[in-house]
Amino acid sequence: MLREFVNRNSDRYLARWIVLTFDLSVIAISYFIASLLRYNFDASELAADWKPTNLAMVVLAYLGGFLISKSYAGIIRHTGLRDAFNILKASLIAFSILFVLTLLSYMASESFRSDFNIGRSVLVIHFLLNLFFLIGSRMAVKVIYQSTQMSRVQKQTKVLIYGAGASGMITKNTLQQESKRDYDILGFIDDNPYKVGKAIEGIMVYSPKKIFGSNFVEKNKVDQIIISIQSNLSPKRKKEITETALEKNLEVKIVPPIENWIHGELSAKQIKNVKIEDLLERDPIILDNVNISREVKDRVILVTGAAGSIGSEISRQLIYYAPRKVILLDQAESALYDLENEIKSKDPANYGLTEYVVGDVTDKARMTKVFRVFQPDIVFHAAAYKHVPLMEDNPYEGIKTNICGTKIVADLSADFNIQKFVMVSTDKAVNPTNVMGATKRTAEIYTQALGCRKSVNTQFIITRFGNVLGSNGSVIPLFRKQIEKGGPITITHKDITRYFMTIPEACNLVLEAGAMGNGGEIFVFDMGESVRIIDLAKKMVKLSGLQLGKDIEIVEVGLRPGEKLYEELLAVKENTKPTHHPKILIAEVEPVAYNKVKHLVNHLEHNLENKDNLDMVAELKAIVPEFISNNSIFASLDLKKIVND
Known about the structure:
By secondary structure, this protein is an alpha/beta fold. It has 26 helices and 22 strands. The strands form 5 sheets. Strands 10-9-8-11-12-13-18-22-21 form a 9-stranded mixed β-sheet, with helices on both faces. The N and C termini lie far apart (92 Å).
């Protein structure tokens, strides 16, 4: 019956005046009990000495304490340490007032002393009884509420919290107050040996070795592990914890940074599953911000492809280095509009530093006007088509944008004496096996050759890196959608591997390379270790709380046209030399003579719209001799070349 009453009224809350009235009633009753204790339960002696004014003064004093501390404002079913402290604060205020009045009564007139005279022992007993009844009643309501709510939950979730610090304690309290799910917190895990073996509020602290090096998880049927560490948790350590937990078939969740808590308070809904991006992160890259700031400050900067994954992040980072103006150019009006609104709302102080221009890098007249009007000092060229299968089917668009568009922007940079031109390239330009990679390599060759001309003052710099996490069309968002739909997850080959970086990490390195470059360099980024895509898919399945083979399947569909198993950052003939930044190397590439490149590119451009796909790709292969098509209809051109040779 009690359970039905609580469940029926679980969405209702007591008004503050009702809680205050209840508390004052407790004060009056506990004063009567304290007086009885003082007189050893002798009712006749108590009646002889009972003064209504004493009770009135006590109630008024505690009313003042309650109003000052607002102890009546808390939601009783969620009573915590703060609520208990507010009751203690109110009681101390009232006790102090009454104690002072008692002392003053001895110095006052006889008539005042006869109306108000409370024994000090009664005050002390009353104070202690108040704390017991006021806090105890609230805790009783909380326990009853939680027990009735938990009885509605079908399954108890057994949890381990990684981190026995302040964040871990807040996580524990948050889970214990959660009414929609029953959490059984089995223990804390902590790397600090001084905490291991001790109990915090009755919950034991274990070492990682104890949890993961024994059958603790299996024996206690643990469901989840929640990582709750706000500081000193490196990406490497986070990865180690997560992968060890996944091996134990645990669901892994993580508490967000404290700055993301709603109004500074954590809720159970904010504790999310660890994402695969978290496992691919590396330790933060330390940048030479002074070097970047010196290059960017008070400069006008043009970013092409500014609405894309890389271009938008470059734009976000640039505005923090106090440029005079950042021109954000893209042909995708909706994406550019979204970026404008984002910067306007999230960074209004720097919004005035930006200009948003809709334009196509392949439109020479439009680009010439942009250069003439804005007179940029530095150009970050990120506009490009990047999807391998689409460009394999549409080589015209790949050539037009990635080669002709780059040529237009590069030529204008030289004509307008731009200080620096930084091109964003890709690892797919190395020994390309597809049209997209070959077009990017051609763009590299042209810009490098243009920068070698004596009459050109612009410094042409190329940055080359692999896949970025979360970029539009990348494999991780694809896998995530497939998992949400129940599968299957499709991979092209079980042995395929890729390099990954986060978008901010890649863009940081682009800015750093752009700042350190003197012209002619192809900067190669340290991408860490390559990742097997099938392992990536398996981890994403585990992180989603699913079982491979039972809840979802991974299906191998075969390599796509132009796709290769392993990406490379350097061609066979390329060597590297170090820079002052350990994550950035310079590829030593033999430049091609400008006149030769110009002739080949012009021949490719000439009458482009009238050429068929085979003719276009054949001319592309003439510019990039190492371009050998893989799993593509254009592989026939390689056979013809071998026969003719």
